Amino acid sequence: MSEFKTFSINIRGRIMEISRPWIMGILNITPDSFYAGSRTTGNDAISARADRLIKEGADIIDIGGYSSRPGAEDVSPEEEYARLKRGIEIVRNIAPETIISIDTFRADIARKCVLDDGADIINDISGGDLDPEMHATVAQLHVPYVMMHMHGTPDTMQQLCDYPHGVTADVIAELGIKIDHLRSLGVCDIIVDPGFGFAKTVEQNYELLDNLDEFHHLGLPLLVGISRKSMIYRLLGTTPERSLNGTTVLNTAALLHGAHILRVHDVTEAVEAVKITGAITRNYKY
């Protein structure tokens, strides 16, 4: 069990403390995300889901317009931006002060969403690998950056699960190199994500979770995104739709290892996990 460490991040001039685990609610404006229950397309559906996430206690709304599941259709930059822009506008109309993260690996889209539409955080599944301009863009924008670990692309990543020194050591080392680069560019607010399910086998995912304490040596807030993923439903022989209980179990394990942000489809259950884990560890109060 790892002690929870408080971090501060700068969100548009507001210094905000992560003094207890935050919940990042997923708002997918896509027709083909891996979990059907998270897909929203029409304005009414987007608005209803965003309102629900906020009322259930999401600290951040993470808006995605490009499915990263293997085999998903490619989305043009124009279509991805249109989806993200619409999502930001809807969330801002519902709750103007809500922290909004945009889930994109494209630097130009990240720039427009931050400068023109008011997004607060960039969440990049590729950690900068899919767009060489992303790190410089983050440095120019001065926004928090969620840097996830991945190899290859969503279509090739599951053929790229070789880690010569072990998955934990190699993922930490690869993230560490990128952190150093971001620091050299002047990026201050970095959040690390081990990338569960991305270029990892089921066994490697569980090894990473067991070794999650090791990621605290990076000295940065830690985001864990395991909601309804294949590491649950493949192990249990079920489906994403039947993986809520497994998600709660794994989220609790992540919290006991000191996770700072949980990225989830189901906010109520994640909030309950945070409250109960806080009562067990007495590391924080919700």
Blueprint of the fold:
Layout (H helix, E strand, L loop, with lengths): L6 E5 L2 E5 L3 E7 L14 H14 L3 E5 L12 H18 L4 E5 L3 H9 L5 E4 L9 H8 L3 E4 L18 H18 L5 E4 L8 H9 L12 E2 L5 H7 L7 H13 L4 E4 L2 H15 L5
Parallel strand pairs: 3-4, 3-10, 4-5, 5-6, 6-7, 7-8, 9-10
Antiparallel strand pairs: 1-2
Helix pairs in contact: 1-2, 3-4, 6-7, 8-9
What does this structure look like?
- Helices cover 39% and strands 16% of the residues.
- An eight-stranded parallel sheet has the order 8-7-6-5-4-3-10-9.
- Helix 5 links the parallel strand 7 and strand 8.
- Helix 6 crosses helix 7.
- The protein is globular and about 40 Å long.
Order of helices and strands: EEEHEHEHEHEHEHEHHEH
- Spans of at least 5 consecutive residues whose pLDDT stays below 50 are none
Q: Per the principal axes of the C-alpha atoms, what is the gross shape?
A: globular
Give the spatial strand order of the biggest sheet.
Answer: 8-7-6-5-4-3-10-9
- Nearest-integer average pLDDT: 93
* Structural class by secondary-structure content: alpha/beta
Roughly how many Å is the radius of gyration?
17 Å
End-to-end span in angstroms?
A: 19 Å
